[in-house]
Amino acid sequence: MKKYSIGIDLGGTKILTALVDRSSGKVVHFVKKKIKQEKGAENIINKMICSINELFDECKVDIKEVQALGVAAAGQIDRTHGIILGAPNLECFDLNIREILEGEFNLPVYLANDVEAATLGELKFGAGKGVDDLVCVFVGTGVGSCIVKDGKIIRGATGTAGEIGHIIVDLNGRQCGCGAHGCLEAYASRSAIEKRIEGSLKKGRHSVILDYLEEGKSITSSMIRKSIERGDELVTHCVDEASEYLSGGLASVINLINPKLIILGGGLIEAVDYFYQKTVKDAKLKCLPVPATKIEFKKTALGDFSGVIGAAYLDE
Question: pTM of this prediction?
Fold first, then answer.
């Protein structure tokens, strides 16, 4: 058995590439690259290849010691053929990740949805260890989830089960990145909060978040947290609105699936505890009283590494 695997978390704003020790699930070394502006298939592939080469250069591990390369991608994917079918936040469609990376590195390549891989990581080494009935929800650029029943990930008829971000919460609502209107993701993601804040600032509303913003830079979860800590009315209102929608979505999941545990992760959850606490409290109040007595919430135990650790074990 070879000692390492490479896990790649291909998110809406970053590529996180890690060398993972297969015996322990520990991240030995990682490379992180932002992709806020550089989207599209060609740019994404170039960044991934550069990240993997940089990883090998920095950690001095021979490729012969690596067993597999796993990619966790935000969007709808074809696991069998290793193709990203549609990832609107990445501007990638019908991208054959497996063919390209296997040709470049001569390693077996596996592909999964990003939240599915993160859930696998949490099941093996994190907050979901020992729990066989849970839902994992990640809130960042988008809102994604994965369902685990009897210890197994539920993928559905087309392999796309768990798309909580595309539950319709307003039939005539905002347009989502997927093209539909009124999706939860268009209201409860960090991107949704960012758009609401930016829209209000353009209308002349004041916010202390301007103290952190640089020309041409995006609003981050850290900026949102700092603004709330300073009692900023605008940012707090936008976060409260997002929490209201997310808690309603989670309550619907609790009523429909009745899991033992919901694991919450992603940049917004990790950075803004106010958002996490409010969402959990309201979700319990909104769901039916019987499941409300049993449902448990946890944050991810592996944090930013959930996806890369899970991706490193996709060959199992």
Answer: 0.91
